[in-house]
Design brief:
Layout lengths: L2 H4 L14 E4 L2 E7 L6 E9 L2 E5 L6 H13 L6 E5 L5 H4 L2 H8 L3 E3 L1 H12 L6 H10 L4 H8 L4 H5 L8 E2 L5 E4 L2 E8 L6 E6 L4 E5 L21 H12 L7 E4 L5 E2 L1 H22 L6 H8 L6 H20 L3 E5 L5 E5 L1
Helix pairs in contact: 6-7, 9-10, 10-12, 11-12
The structure holds zinc ion.
């Protein structure tokens, strides 16, 4: 069944560019552009004492900053920002964290792992560099011509996150933050980013889900080069189970797509999606397959360079899940490429 048929979308009309739209008492939706196939990100503004708490900040580029400027100019003068919360370090979420916190003299609230990840990616330190990632991709069968294409990307992280704070306030699992008149509880999730913070308000039954639960697309779950034996799909599926304990009528505010109701149904769909993919992958592994070999099994469409980059991480994540369950074994042939075959 398609997501549309089970989920309901109480706010089908998008907010205007640079304008916020109320989606719950004291909760406003701001939508920013992204120059990718995934063309937008949702940010959230929470009414706080004497200003706003901002949740996620958009890509650190000129179009997004112009829209932030428009928002501040039109939202009753220059409303003070009380704090900036970032769910995780990915550039569409963290891109303006430094710019906004500097502009308003406020603190960044983020988990430790995400704070350190942002710093590491900005500096492209060993293990976090594109070069390191490409070595892993090569070892997992990505042909050399694709490696060359990806190489041309450069340090995209730093250009999308041009500034970043040098200090932060730590978000931890279960932490309750008083924002305006309401309490919001941090629910950590894993598998998409090292320590992704979602926020849940019991009083409103609203979940700011970040990238952990999306209504239409599936969350990217990738093996990272600094954790080459990682099993992020297992972590992700376990995390989904935790959101599934929230009330059935929770309003979910995702980072991409429309706000929706039907959290439990969506979680069930996502679990089923990955179960089916794992089954198909297992069939494909009748003969030894590298991660690059199984990309067409997982993604039945043409992929651009950016999508190929994510697809490699995703293919590895699914293979590692099967490997840890001993449903496939791993071989290394003379060419140095890792291949997986049905056990
Ligand atoms: Zn993300």
């Amino acid at each position: 069944m398609s997501p549309e048929s089970i989920l309901s979308y109480p706010f089908p009309v998008l907010p205007l560019a640079g304008r916020a739209l109320a989606v719950a008492p004291g909760v406003h939706w701001l939508r920013m552009p992204l120059p990718f196939a995934l063309n937008h990100i949702n940010l959230w503004l929470l009414e706080d004492e004497g200003g706003w708490t901002i949740v996620d900040s958009g890509l650190g580029d000129a179009p997004t900053r112009a829209l932030w400027g428009e928002f501040f100019a039109t939202a009753a003068g220059e409303p003070p920002v009380r704090r900036v919360i970032v769910t995780h370090h990915h550039p569409d979420h963290a891109g303006n964290a430094g710019w906004l916190t500097q502009r308003f003299g406020v603190q960044l609230w983020i988990s430790y792992s995400e704070f350190v990840s942002a710093l590491a990616y900005r500096e492209a330190v060993d293990g976090f560099s594109l070069a390191h990632r490409l070595v892993m991709f090569r070892r997992n069968g990505l042909p050399i011509e694709h490696i060359h294409k990806l190489k041309d990307r450069g340090n995209g992280y730093r250009s999308a996150v041009p500034e970043f704070p040098s200090a932060y306030r730590r978000l931890t699992d279960g932490l309750v933050i008083r924002i305006g008149a309401r309490d919001w509880r941090v629910i950590m999730g894993y598998g998409h980013a090292p320590e992704h913070a979602a926020l849940y308000c019991d009083e409103l039954k609203v979940l700011i889900a970040g990238d952990m639960v999306l209504p239409k697309i599936t969350t990217n779950v990738s093996v990272m080069s600094f954790e080459p034996e990682g099993n992020p799909l297992k972590q992700f599926l376990e995390s989904l189970g935790r959101y599934g304990t929230l009330p059935a009528d929770t309003l979910v505010l995702p980072s991409h797509g429309l706000p929706f109701a039907g959290l439990r149904e969506r979680i069930a769909q996502l679990q089923e999606h990955h179960r089916l993919r794992l089954g198909e992958l297992l069939e494909a592994c009748e003969a030894p397959q590298s991660a690059a070999d199984v990309i067409p099994t997982l993604f039945r469409r043409e992929l651009d360079t950016q999508q190929l980059y994510f697809a490699m991480g995703e293919a590895m994540a699914h293979l590692h899940f099967l490997f840890e369950e001993r449903r496939v074994s791993r071989t290394e042939d003379g060419d140095g490429v890792l291949r997986f075959v049905r056990a």
